[in-house]
Specification:
Blueprint: E1 5-6, E2 13-19, H1 24-38, H2 45-62, E3 67-76, E4 79-86, H3 106-113, E5 116-122, E6 125-133
Helix pairs in contact: 1-2, 2-3
Length: 138
């Protein structure tokens, strides 16, 4: 594990690497919450922590990665991006579970909570991300 640290280049952001295990979802939620409050966007916390939990849980369930990196960035003044990085090149797929299914709704929830989401495939793996829109100041 590395300590959460601000990004020194590009868009403002925070990043932390976690062991790929269920207990890491809690720490990822704390990272997202801290970043959002630091930026004065605490109203996005509920959606942000749910999104990162779903993305981390998908990585844990569907990959064989030993570690997972969480990125929380501010690409523009009006958006926050939450990303989960792993070394698996398989892309996420939205399930269409029936009403009796106990799982398979994670990406549907990410889609409902975010303004947009997607993934960036790389030679070494992928980043699955979701963006939240920062409300205009009153």
């Amino acid at each position: 594990m590395t300590a959460a640290r601000p990004s020194a280049i590009d868009a403002p952001g925070y990043t932390e690497t976690f062991v790929c295990e269920p207990e890491s979802a809690r720490r990822a939620r704390l990272l997202v919450s801290a970043a959002l409050h630091t930026w004065g966007t605490g109203e996005l916390t509920e959606a942000g922590v749910q999104i990162v939990a779903e993305l981390i849980n998908n990585t844990i369930e569907h990959t064989r990665c030993r570690t997972v990196r969480v990125l929380v960035t501010r690409p523009t003044k009006r958006s926050v991006r939450i990303g989960v990085v792993d070394t698996c090149r398989d892309v996420p797929e939205v399930d269409r579970p029936d009403q009796n299914s106990e799982g398979g709704r994670g990406l549907l929830l990410v889609d409902a909570l975010s303004s947009r989401w997607g993934y960036d495939r790389h030679r070494w793996g992928k980043v699955v991300w979701a963006e939240l829109e920062v409300p205009a100041p009153r």
